[in-house]
Write a structure and sequence with these properties.
Blueprint: H1 9-15, H2 21-27, H3 34-37, H4 39-52, E1 54-59, E2 77-82, H5 83-90, E3 107-112, E4 115-120, E5 129-133, E6 137-140, H6 146-150, H7 157-178, H8 182-190, H9 202-210, E7 212-213, E8 226-229, E9 237-238, E10 244-249, E11 254-259, E12 268-271, H10 280-288, H11 304-329, H12 337-352, H13 358-373, H14 377-395, H15 399-404, H16 407-411, H17 418-424
Parallel strand pairs: 2-6, 9-12
Antiparallel strand pairs: 1-2, 3-4, 4-12, 5-11, 6-8, 7-8, 10-11
Bound molecules: S-adenosylmethionine (SAM).
S-adenosylmethionine binds near residues 191, 209 and 294.
Pfam families: SET (PF00856)
Organism: Lyophyllum shimeji
InterPro entries: SET_dom (IPR001214), SET_dom_sf (IPR046341), SET_domain_protein (IPR053185)
Length: about 425
């Protein structure tokens, strides 16, 4: 999914620089399993915690004694966090806010081509709010244990990898998992696990299969990201032409799922676990680490045409500003010069079902900007509305949509009518 757990031995050895030799010789194991059995290893856990500044915390707050997660609509999340991420959460304006829920239940979870999946139970429109959910757990995506890494000198790469995975599972993830009540633990372990055979423990396996990025909750440095596991949202399968997107709101500590294009009743709802504008081969390479061999339309051979469209789409974004400036500077170019270019790209986006991608936003914006320059409020509102719905799907906020639906907003922009003015001065008739 969005985030991939990596043991990151590079960063552990780099972090080791501050560890004195006595630590490493005391803790040096004779085999991988020794690392867990030796009493010294227990002390290393404390050292690791101190060094890495990791804390177990329930967000937004500890539930009352005996409270069951399943009985509470808002729920709470068991987190393993470093202090910078925790500080970000606690200082977010509005935190802790109640999650904002959709008006109705418009999906069900059921059998799909890829195990379980999510299906629309009514027609959905772009921007529709499908689900809000607080995660069961939030944990770091990389394994930070510099002192422990010192214990592993002399082991083979495979032994070292296995020792690190075991240690992360038992000493770090298990205490977080144990803070869930028994029904929530069962729900967690019931999620898909495509890492059951690769040495990951059961908790790590579920996180690696299901964990997705918690936008905005991050520590400084390259390995500062976190992975969230949700009971329902993790049932959504991947497509390279997705129909929904997740967004994370720190203040309510919840994910929202929104439709990124229209979806028919009964259709499966997909999100993308990878960058959809990459080529099929690059996407497949990325998805392989999640045990996925994608068979969506754009991944089925021959992928040449789809790859080329996606590559051209990426490039088209870079050309937008230049095309606009050229058009403004050249009154001989047709009024709809940039509009036609972006409409062509939008038909490519629709052909590839990439409405969730950034390319859609860029081209909708280019069209609105051109209509504003032409002083055409009706069309600025028409395409602005789509742009507002796109933003709603990505942010859960309606402010952009409200602005774009208001002709007065477009008329009040400094670039309103600037292309018309050029024509009024006679330049358009040259
Ligand atoms: C987050 S889970 C999605 C829900 C899962 N299908 C279930 O039954 O719980 C991710 C797993 O679903 C499967 N999966 C998701 N999307 C897929 C796809 N496009 N093609 C093949 N398998 C997919 C893979 O087994 C993957 O490891």
């Amino acid at each position: 999914m969005d985030c991939l757990l990596s043991e990151n031995p590079g960063s552990t050895s780099e972090d080791d620089r501050g560890v004195d030799e006595a630590d490493s010789s005391e803790l040096a194991p004779r085999s991988a399993s020794d690392a867990f059995e030796a009493g010294d290893a227990e002390r290393a856990v404390d050292d690791d915690f101190a060094f890495n500044d990791l804390v177990y915390v329930t967000i937004p707050s500890d539930p009352p004694p005996g409270a069951k997660l399943a009985d509470d609509r808002d729920g709470w999340t068991q987190c393993l966090l470093r202090h910078p991420a925790l500080a970000t959460i606690l200082s977010t304006p509005g935190f802790p806010r109640r999650p904002h829920y959709p008006p109705d239940v418009c999906f069900c979870i059921g059998p799909s081509k890829h195990g379980l999946g999510m299906f629309a139970t009514r027609d959905l429109s772009m921007g529709d709010h499908i689900l809000t959910e607080r995660p069961l757990t939030v944990t770091p995506t990389t394994i930070p244990m510099p002192k422990f890494a010192r214990c592993l000198e002399g082991l083979t790469d495979e032994q070292r990898r296995q020792a690190i995975l075991d240690r992360w599972e038992k000493a770090f993830l298990l205490p977080c998992f144990n803070r869930l009540d028994s029904a929530a633990q069962a729900d967690f372990l019931d999620l898909a696990n495509s890492h059951a055979e690769d040495g990951s423990g059961p908790i790590l396996g579920v996180i690696r299969t299901n964990g997705f990025e918690v936008a905005g909750v991050v520590d400084p440095g390259p390995d500062g990201e976190y992975a969230a596991v949700c009971r329902i949202m993790c049932r959504i399968n991947h497509s390279c032409s997705p129909s929904a997107d997740r967004l994370f709101d720190i203040a309510s500590f919840s994910f929202q799922l929104r439709a990124t294009r229209d979806v028919k009743q009964g259709e499966e709802i997909f999100v993308s676990y990878c960058n959809v504008l990459e080529t099929a081969a690059d996407r497949q390479e990325y998805l392989a680490s999640y045990g996925i061999k994608c068979t969506c339309n754009s991944c089925l051979p021959d992928t040449t045409a789809s790859d080329q469209r996606r590559l051209d789409l990426r490039r088209s974004i870079d050309a937008i500003d230049n095309d606009y400036d050229t058009w403004l500077a050249d009154p001989l170019l047709a009024d709809d010069y940039t509009i036609k270019i972006s409409l062509r790209w939008i038909s490519v986006i629709q052909q590839e079902a990439l409405e969730a991608s950034d390319a859609y936003r860029h081209h909708l914006h280019a069209i609105v900007k051109a209509y504003v320059a032409l002083g055409d409020a009706e069309n600025a509102v028409k395409y602005g509305r789509l742009l507002g719905l796109w933003a709603l799907g990505q942010s859960g906020k309606e402010d952009m949509l409200r602005k774009m639906e208001n002709p007065g907003y477009h008329r009040g922009r400094p670039d309103w009518g600037i292309r018309v003015c050029a024509e009024d001065e006679g330049l358009g008739e040259i």
